[in-house]
Design a protein that fits this description.
By secondary structure, the chain is mostly helical. It is built from twelve helices and no strands.
């Protein structure tokens, strides 16, 4: 751990990300107010001791909704990265060791999916299946599958050429056992780095979909949805947009820095290049 925290990017990213995770965890147990509690008498109040980040057009406490929105952001990141990892790693390994036909088919499918930007793909899927947080997670997760598949294929092929793999094969160990015992443990580092970076992208993508009305639906709190609702009141109540925007920027910056720090520590070659 000392080696990790000697890296400035990792330390900064860890601190920023930990704040987001702790805020999400705390909101499961306590928030200053019910995030969905409305009060006509308190609508559009500025930051004060009673409401540190102000209230929105329905009198809901902005701080409480930001804390509740952190749960959705963390959940989206975890689910989408899990979908991409599980299916992407399986397809990547199949492409690496399943023969030329499997390799060509999987890589051409990945190229096809890469032809569409992540948000555009998510908009298409949520438009077909309907707007909801579950469909948004599914859409983002599907886009992540070729990301992890291509990475897995590339690093697995490098590992497969190593001498210890040849030694394992010579000792009579089966191909599947070699992949499980020797290949997978040696490709975890790049997958962990990529997963951390994609976690940040997932938070941003969910915020974008919610802003467009295709992600988390009311009355549930979402940072992107809060930005959408705030745009009408930018002149009179700018805090409605400033604080959710800062929350998104904080989370994305934190997980990006965490991923950069992991790359510096776990991939010394990349650290020297940078």
């Amino acid at each position: 751990m000392r080696r990790f925290f000697q890296n400035k990017n990792f330390t900064a990213g860890f601190v920023l990300s930990a704040v987001v995770v702790l805020a999400a965890a705390a909101s499961l147990l306590w928030t200053p107010y019910d995030p969905n509690r409305m009060s006509a008498l308190e609508r559009l109040e500025g930051p004060s001791l009673r409401h540190p980040l102000g209230t929105d057009q329905y009198g809901r406490d902005t701080l409480s909704r930001i804390l509740a929105g952190a749960v959705n952001s963390i959940l989206v990141g975890l689910v989408t990265v899990a979908i991409g990892l599980l299916l992407g790693v399986a397809l990547g390994l199949l492409a690496a060791y399943g023969g030329k036909a499997a390799d060509e088919a999987i890589m051409r499918l990945a190229d096809l999916l890469f032809g569409f930007p992540a948000v555009l793909t998510a908009i298409l899927i949520t438009s077909i299946l309907g707007p909801s947080m579950v469909n948004a997670m599914l859409a983002i997760g599907i886009f992540y599958i070729p990301v992890f598949a291509r990475l897995t294929r590339a690093v697995a092929r490098v590992v497969w050429e190593k001498e210890f793999i040849a030694a394992a094969r010579a000792s009579g160990i089966g191909e599947l056992a070699i992949v499980r015992r020797h290949v997978l443990p040696n490709i975890l580092s790049p997958l962990l780095i990529q997963g951390t970076i994609q976690f940040a992208v997932a938070i941003l993508a969910e915020a974008g979909l919610s802003y467009l009305g295709l992600g988390t639906q009311p009355p549930h709190a979402s940072w992107g949805r809060m930005l959408n609702e705030a745009q009408t009141f930018l002149d009179t109540s700018p805090w409605m947009a400033v604080f959710p925007g800062l929350a998104i920027a904080w989370a994305v910056l934190g997980f990006n820095l965490l991923g950069d720090g992991l790359r510096d520590v776990l991939d010394p070659k990349m650290a020297r290049i940078r």
